[in-house]
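G., the chain you wanted modeled:
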Amino acid sequence: MSTNGNGLRSASWFGGVSLYSFVHRSWMKAEGWAPDVFDGRPVVGICNSWSELVNCNVHFRALADAVKRGVWEAGGFPLEFPTLSLGEPFVKPSTMLYRNLMAMDVEEAIRSNPMDAVVLLCGCDKTTPAQLLGAASADLPAIMLPGGPMLKGRWKGEEIGSGTDAFRFANAHRQGHITDEEFVAVEAGMHRSNGHCMVMGTASTMTSLAEALGMTLPGAASIPAVDSRRYALAQATGRRAVELAREGLRPSSVLTQDALDNAITALMALGGSTNAVIHLTALAGRLPLELPLERFDEISGGTPVLADVKPSGAHLMEDFYYAGGVPALLRQIADLLHEDALTVTGRTLGEELAEVPEPYGPAVRQRSAPLSDVGGTVILRGSLAPDGAVLKRSAASPHLLSHRGRALVFASQFELLERIDDPDLDVDADTVLVLHGAGPVGAPGMPEWGQMPIPRKLLDAGVTDMVRVSDARMSGTSYGTVVLHVAPESAVGGPLGLVRTGDEVELDVETRRIDLLVEDAELDRRRAAWQPPARAFERGYGRLFLDHVLQADEGCDFDFLRGGAADRLGERDLAAQYARIGHS
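Predicted structure as tokens:
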């Protein structure tokens, strides 16, 4: 039995001979561990977001076992623990309501328990950013292990992908072009395995950005969930976690200003989800680092889209992996990256990319033949969005990127769904659909309601896209000319809440403007008459959320979670101090 712990944090619990180390070791031995596990082995926590309510993460028990193999091989002591798990299909009104709760769960579990490093098992949309936020705030040596995308969907010989093709088939079903039986058959063919969405939705985007940030082993983002190589990578991740514990390499050394720039550059080259703007902004606030929305636009303008993956492109994530995945993509844009940024491998990004071969499949395009010459996401401002809004240019219709039209306003998502297929709806192809009450406070939780459905009468007339404006988010699997994340939101008195049916709205992506063309005097009159909506919660976590959530331009984090460097484990480790003096 080690009495000094080799300088490990876990030695505060398990090292030495005292009443308190006696208690800690004795309770751990109650699980059946042999005494030599306390002989100076680094304790590696395995933060598992497994849940049967989350198909994306349902294979994580086996993945955790593979991590444990690697930890044991490297001389560590693996201890698995659960955290809140968030699944997009089932949680209502939105997993975004609970991202911060999961981040707090992850942070406090890391902070309060005897571990020297942590492996973060992530996959579904919010599990990756929540774990990133929690790990950044705790600042214990950490490495991320994504669960990987599911296999390609297939139906009648066509390759189909989550969300992106679901919306297409749903519209075909609304119009009577496919039968109920065919629609149900698509369900079975679309999702054929465990894993997250197999398009470049939010899940694939965020795991790819975790890799670009330097928080995973190279290639970790895109290996399919059911591919045996995913488990080999998990084993290697466990081995590296033990080394991180001994080296003391913390997220604060990896998650730097340069790393954020690298992640934004990767986001643009991926044609990735607009949700990443919110999550990266929240991460910057935790570190804390400066990340104005305009930085996304600056990088977008000089970054080509090279990932030919739905919804911006034609292929699926399985193809992206076969073409070389994130490493191959980053190699193509290495000159746009900070190659001296440190990664959790202990090497720089440039050192890792030097060993990466050229892309070997169409899902990762050559620099000379991009899907687009400029990045997928732009930032808008204007009288309708003074604090910013987001549009995914790579998934929009070019003819609508400069557009002026009459607003049709829906006061809520419920009203929209009730009216959208009304044959008497006063709407045409030039109308701008506007949705109120879908932001962080208004919904609450900022659901993915931004891709409002095309009215049935226009679908029947052959209209496939319209300008749509809201304070909501949009699924990363979605497409269309959709203005999102309008800040301030309508529910807190932002200009969006003053829009009335019949007002003119002007979108000009070239000048990065979204404007409400109404006289100032009229807006002043409306503002004076405006009343905030009733609060959705008066107790519990919901009340905490409403009292402290920030707007989209600040990442929708809680105001009291930003910064906080003095609470990080490397600076003030209260749990380790208390472990030496007593037990609860």
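The domain at 377-529 is CATH 3.50.30.80 (Glucose Oxidase; domain 1).

Shout if anything looks off.
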